[in-house]
Amino acid sequence: MDFSSSSSWAAISLVVLAVFATVAAVLLLRQRERIVRQAAELASDVEALNDRLWTLADSEEHYRSLIEAQGDLIVRRDGARIVYANGAYAALLGLDETQIVGSLAQPRLVASRPAQALEGGARVFDECLATPEGERWISWVETVVPVALGQSVLQRVGRDITARIAAEQELVEARARAESANEAKSRFLATVSHEFRTPLNGILGMADLLGDTGLDAEQTTYVRALRTSGEALLGLVDDILDFSKVEAGKLELASEPFDLGVLVETVSELMAPRAQVKGIELAAHLAPDLPTHLVGDRDRIRQILLNLVGNAIKFTDRGGVGIRISRDDRMVVIDVADTGPGIPEERRQAIFEEFEQADVSPARRHEGTGLGLAIVRRLTALMGGSVGVEGREGGGSLFRVRLPLEASEATETAALPDWRGKRVLVVSGAPFGAGFLREIIRAAGGDALVASDAEEARALLRDPASCDAALIDQEIGRTEAIALAAEARRAGVADCLIMLSPLERRQFGSPREAGFTGFLVKPVRARSLYQRLSPRPVLSAVAAEPAASPPPPSRPRLSVLVAEDNEINALLATRTLERFGCAAVWAPDGSRALAAIEAGFAGDGPCFDLVLLDIRMPGMDGLAVARAVRSREKEGPGRAPLPLVAVSANVSDGDRAAALAAGMDDCLAKPLERAALQRWLDRVAASHPLSRSA
Ligand code: ADP
């Protein structure tokens, strides 16, 4: 039994061992399988990793080659130290890419332009850098680029713009060259036309003097022709001079108060003889709501008007020319209308260009430079205004200038008379004047009945509602006008005025004897009409019709020194002075003029009452003489200052200022205008000891 039990234990032990061994073997097998599997997975991971690494290397190479290929300069810096730079940037410094990273290398800055900030914090700027290949302009875009946790570097990407800058520079230089050539041209024109003026003024002045020497009829005709041609030439020279001044930007605009009515009258007076010669009407009208005084450059506005009115008269053979000035908001509107041939629509733009004429056919009828309207356009633009032309209903042209002119403080508000219920008959066939009269009458609340001839007027007079006044234009014929006045009187018209041009006024005789209550000089001004047809004066300052110029007052014989280097001008000035009853002494240069004045001061020569000093004389000029005279006067106390008047061929604002600064009393233009000279002589005579004692 013992034996059997011990053998059973052994058997059991063996079985247990076998089971353990089997389990261990199974576990080992599983373990191996897992290890084999993991090894396989690891191998595949390594392979994928290798693939990624290769792709990455490939992509970096790809981007690097792209960056290198595009030619832009790229640099990244951490502070001043370069952390990355491409080949193009390295080349800019003449270095190799491998040398540059980690260095503090910087190209030398030659010039730079101000930076511009872009959205997102970037900056754009241009720099000129010294490189081994010479100076290069680079346009940079600078940005801050984050690189690692909280860290960033400054990145600049630059493009070489040297060629563009060179082209810009060339353009600037070319423009400067063109401008200076243009300026030289304008200067040349100004000088040449200025030089033309001097002999021309001599010719004109001599023609004047010659005309006064008792010529026969034939000689008078020749002298008149000489004068007309000379004036035409002077007009052209003036045009060129003005144009060159505007071109060269030399024109200084004045800004002073002026009387608009006086301005329009001056233009009408100057232009009226031309219109009379052609037998056409010249009418002017100022809208009653216009300020009487404006602020601006009176002379330039007059020049605009003279150009437009001059053209209108030149191109109009029948009918007339009307100047109308009105107000549109803050703009003063100057209309110059005519009944001439008009301007084809397709030429209306071009005629404002220099040297352009509406009719460019070789057989064109009108002479001229084609500069007048170009000057008008430039002047109006300079004043901030505009000019244009349109066709008129019924034919002719209408030039319209709009200027931003403010009313001056000196402006008078003209109280209009109350003509409500007043009926005024206007008998006139004048294309513009009749319409303007109607406007004047209506502005006062009156009723205007316009008849273009005597027949129409008679029909209106037969109307039982009789008129209070009649204005009859002598242009309908003297006999007809007188007959009509008689009929008007019979029809109960109380006031009957005849309208006459200044020339007709001289020939008409007494209006009262002809059956009129009075006369009006054409162009009829609103003020005059209101005054004539109102029971009492209605305006604060009513100007009377211009009276015939009074005979020259008898005055003491004045002694005048003329300092003038040009012999002809001197002859002209001295002769004119002699005509005015003065004793004229000529000094051909500044130093001789000063010597003559000093001799007078010392009692060794004539004491002058007035000195005319040419500004430009060789050697001692007029300004130097004036300064010397004023300083001598200070040395001799109690001496009354000698009236010194500068004379210049071209009075610019600069000339005038220089003359006044040198101590002169005035500056007059050459050729000496008789009226201006006379004003000075009157002034000097008024303070003359002989006048005072008289
Ligand atoms: P100019 O009169 O010296 O030729 P402008 O510049 O004054 O030069 O005028 C240019 C052109 O415009 C004239 O030649 C003419 O053909 C045309 N023109 C100007 N004003 C008038 C007008 N009132 N009626 C018809 N044509 C005109």
TrEMBL record:
Record keywords, A-Z: ATP-binding, Membrane, Nucleotide-binding, Phosphoprotein, Transmembrane, Transmembrane helix, Two-component regulatory system
A Gene Ontology molecular function term for this protein is: ATP binding
Query: Top EC class per UniProt?
Result: transferase
* Catalytic reaction annotation: ATP + protein L-histidine = ADP + protein N-phospho-L-histidine
Where does the PAS domain start and stop, copy by copy? 59-102
Residues modified to 4-aspartylphosphate: 473, 614
**Could you tell me which PROSITE patterns the record lists for this protein?**
HIS_KIN, PAS, RESPONSE_REGULATORY
Q: Residues in domain Histidine kinase?
A: 191-407
Superkingdom, natural source = Bacteria
- Entry's InterPro entries? CheY-like_superfamily (IPR011006), HATPase_C_sf (IPR036890), HATPase_dom (IPR003594), His_kinase_dom (IPR005467), HisK_dim/P_dom (IPR003661), HisK_dim/P_sf (IPR036097), PAS (IPR000014), PAS-like_dom_sf (IPR035965)
Q: Where do the Response regulatory domain residues begin and end? A: 423-537, 559-685
Give the Enzyme Commission number.
Answer: 2.7.13.3
- Regions that span the bilayer: 6-29
Question: Keyword Glycoprotein, does the record have it?
Answer: no
Q: Which SUPFAM superfamilies match?
A: ATPase domain of HSP90 chaperone/DNA topoisomerase II/histidine kinase (SSF55874), CheY-like (SSF52172), Homodimeric domain of signal transducing histidine kinase (SSF47384), PYP-like sensor domain (PAS domain) (SSF55785)
This chain belongs to which protein, by name? histidine kinase
* Native organism: Bosea massiliensis
